[in-house]
Each structure stands twice: as C-alpha cells, then as structure tokens.
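Amino Acid Chain and Its Fold in Token Form
===========================================
Scope: a single protein chain, as residues and as a discrete description of its fold.
Amino acid sequence: labelled as such and written in the usual single-letter residue code.
Position: the record begins directly beneath this header, with no further notes in between.
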Amino acid sequence: MTPRPPEALEASLRRHWADSLAQAGVVDRAGVLPDLLQRWREPHRAYHTCQHLHETLQGLQAWRPPFGSGPLALALFFHDAVYDPRRADNEEASAQLAREALGALGLDAPTLLTVGRLIAVTRHAARPEGEDEKWMVDLDLSILGASPVRYAQYRAQVRQEYAHVPDPDFRRGRLALVERFLAQGGALFHTEPGRAACSAAALRNLGAEAQELREGPGAGSGGCE
C-alpha cells in the first residue's frame, strides 16, 4: 500500500469531517477539527495516527454507502483521540472528549451518548450488541485483514508505540491478544461487508503472527492492538 502524502490524507479527513457534521446537523464553528487532528499527530504515535483514522473512514465509505451515519462517523473521528499506551482509560477519555467537543457544537444529548457508547466498544472487551457497535468494531479491526505488507507495517508501528515494554513481556501480551482474536474464528467480524473484506485475510495474518511469536525472539516484530 502506497501511503497518501500527509496533505492529501488530511484533506480527505477534512471532507469526511464536513460530511459527518452535515449528517449530524451541526457546523464546526468552534474549530474542533484542528485540535482533533493535532491529537492524531502526537509524536508518540506510530499506528494510532491519521493513517489509521483515514483507513477506518475509508472502510466506512466503502462498506456502508452513502457515507456511514452521523454518530458512527463522528465516533471514528474521536475513538483514539486520546491515546497513550501507558494508560488504561484511553477509550473512556476519548469518549469524554467527544461528548465535550461535540456538545459544544450543539449536538443533541442522545447522539452524544451514542457516540460515547460506540467509542467505548473499541476496548474490544465484550462482543458488540447493536448494529452500529458491530460496524464500529469491524472498522477498528479492519487492519487485521490488510495486505501482508500493510499488516507487517501495522505490527512494526504498534511495537514502536510499546517501545517501553521489554520484548519478552511484549511478545507474551501480543500473543495473548492474537490468540484471543484467532479463537473467534469466523465470528471475528460482525457485519457482512466486514466478513467479506477482512475475515479470511485476518485469520491468515493472525495465524502467521501467532506462529512467529511462539517461535521466540528474532521471529519478527509483534505489537499490542
């Protein structure tokens, strides 16, 4: 996959943002987007960047035309807005930021609650229940079904984000995550477009990574999601 130049990528993100707000019936008069993009550009990020955000939004555009739904697209914009691999409450903090920022734009209370709920499911701690939750999980995990080249890049990027974790500990944690995903088999993705686009490739990618991680040091870089 050839990465987009930063300028083209962020121009696409601005278009997606305008479309998302239009569907929600609000206007960004408070200038929320520049702060939001600055968060996605933070120097400690390698995977959880504008590239990941763009990939999820492109997936939404391709899998669910016309472009998504207001709450779902807005939740994607905020789902990793707060990201620090050393803290355990990134999703909760991202949801709170979304409620504050979108509330300032005049988004109604029920939609704010929906956005927060959709962000929370990206903890991947439980199976999604509602239809939009299923879309949110599939889009967030779509990287698992990427091409082998992009998947290798993703693994290296996440390892970079967890550079503070010693390699043996990192490998154990990553293997536990990969095995948890593998155990879900064909149920890893929850929407028909997600299964069609990602399921087979994801199981191949995860299976190959699990084998490498079990072989021990020197078998390749891993990473926590």
The chain has ten helices and no strands. Residues 147-215 form one domain. Confidence is low (pLDDT under 50) at residues 218-223. The chain has two domains: 6-140, 147-215.
